[in-house]
Amino acid sequence: MSRSGSHDVLVIGAGAAGLAAATALHRAGRGVLCLEARTRVGGRLLSTPVDGGVLDLGATWFWPGEKRVAALAAGTGAGVFSQYLAGDAVLQDGAGARRHPGNMIDVPAYRFAGGAQHLASVLAASLPADAVLLDTPVTAIRPAGEDGVHVHTPERTFRAAQVVLAVPPALALERIDFGDALPDRLVRLARSTAVWMGAVAKVVAHYSSAFWREQGLAGAAFSRSGPLQEIHDMSGADGRPAALFGFAHARVVRPGFEAAVAAQLGACFGPAAASPDALHVRDWSRESWTAPSSVHALADYSLFGHPLYQRPALEGRLHWASTETATDHAGHIEGALLSGERAAHAVLSSATYDSGATFG
Fold first, then answer.
1. Which residues, other chains included, contact 293 with Cβ-Cβ below 8 Å and sequence gap of 6+?
2. Which element (helix H / strand E) includes 56?
3. What is the pLDDT of residues 258-308, one digit of tens each?
4. Domains detected in the chain
C-alpha cells in the first residue's frame, strides 16, 4: 500500500456536509482533500435528468428561514421556486380514497429548478481540480501522534493534521475501522443514531402533464393503506417535468411494489395516474454508502445533534459533520450545511492544527 502525501485536512464524504466543510476550509487557505466512496458527489442529494428538467430522488425541499441553503442556492445560481400548494388533498384509508377540501398536507417550501444535486456539483467544482477523489472509500482511521491522523483506503494511505468525518455516524462505525481509538460512549452513540432517509424508499412517478392540477388537486395525499404513506407534487416550476412523488418504508419494497404504487396513484388521482411514463424507485436502505446494515433498527432521532458530536475526537483531530450531527435543522440540507460549517470552524480553531504552514 502506497503512502499518498500529507494534507492539512481530509474530509470524508462529498455530500452537502462534506463539501460545505471542504469549501470553507479551502477558502480559508487550507490544503483540503475530500474522499468520496461513491462515483459521484452529492450523497443524499441525487437528481436524475428527464425530458424537461430533473427529478430529485433524494432531498427535495428547503424551507423558509433556512438561511444557509438559501444563500448557497443564490450563490451558485441555482434557481428556486415555491412548492405547488394549490388545490385539494386526498386522504386514503381502508375504505378507499376521498377528496379533502384544501391542502392540509403540504407546507410552504422551496424547490431547486436544477435539482438538489446541482448544489453539490457546484460546490465540488469550486474546489481545486484534484481536491475531490471519487470511488475512494475509507476503510480505517488511526491516530498517529505527532504524525496527525492516518486515513486508509483500499489503494492508498493518507495523513493529515485534521479529519472531518462527513457521513452518517452509524455508517462510519460500520464501515471504518477505528481500532480502539474512540471512547466507548461515543461508539455506542454513533451506532445508535438513526440515519436520515436511511430506511426510506422514495418513489417518483413521471408523467407527460400535471393533469391532477387541472382537476383542482394539489398532488398531495396521505395514506393509511399505502404503500406510499404520503404523496406530493414534484413538478417543475411551470409544471414540467410533471411528477408526483411519495415515501414508503423501505421494508415494503419487494416484488409487486411498483404495481402496488401505480394502483395507489390511480386510486388517489384517477386512472391516468396509474400509468406513469416512468416510475423511479430509490431505496435508500440499499445504498451502501448511506445506510448501515442495522438501518431498520435505528429509530432514535433524539440523538441527532448530540453534544458528543459537537466535540472533536481522536485527541482533537477528528470532527463530526453530517445532517445527523447538526444541532439545528437536523435531517435537512440546512442541517448538513450547518454541520459542515461547524466542523470547518472547529478545524480552524483547533489547538492541534498548525495554522502557519501546510501539514507535512
1. 174
2. strand 53-56
3. 999 999 999 999 999 999 999 999 999 999 999 999 999 999 999 999 999
4. 2-43+119-196+294-348 (3.50.50.60), 83-111+199-286 (3.90.660.10)
* C-alpha Rg value of the chain to the nearest Å: 21
Residue at grid coordinates 471512547: 183
Residue 190 and residue 64 in contact, taking contact as beta carbons nearer than 8 Å: no
Contact predicate 42/345, CB 8 Å: no
Whether this model's pTM surpasses 0.90:
yes
Q: What is the pLDDT of residues 90-143, one digit of tens each?
A: 999 987 999 999 999 999 999 999 999 999 999 999 999 999 999 999 999 999
- What pLDDT score was predicted for residue 305? 98
Across the chain, mean pLDDT equals 94
User: Distance between CA 161 and CA 11 in Å, rounded?
Assistant: 11
Of the candidates 7, 5, 3, the residue with the CA atom closest to the CA atom of residue 358: 7
Q: Is the pLDDT of residue 359 over 90?
A: no
The Cα-based distances of 86 to 14, 104, 214 in angstroms read 36, 10, 11
Distances (CA, A) of 143 to 67, 199, 314, 344, 359: 36, 32, 6, 19, 15
Cell numbers linked to 145: 501522534
C-alpha torsion sign, points 130, 326, 347, 1: negative
Best CA proximity match to 231, nearest among 276, 198, 188, 194: 276
- Which one, of 314, 308, 343, lies nearest residue 150 by Cα? 314
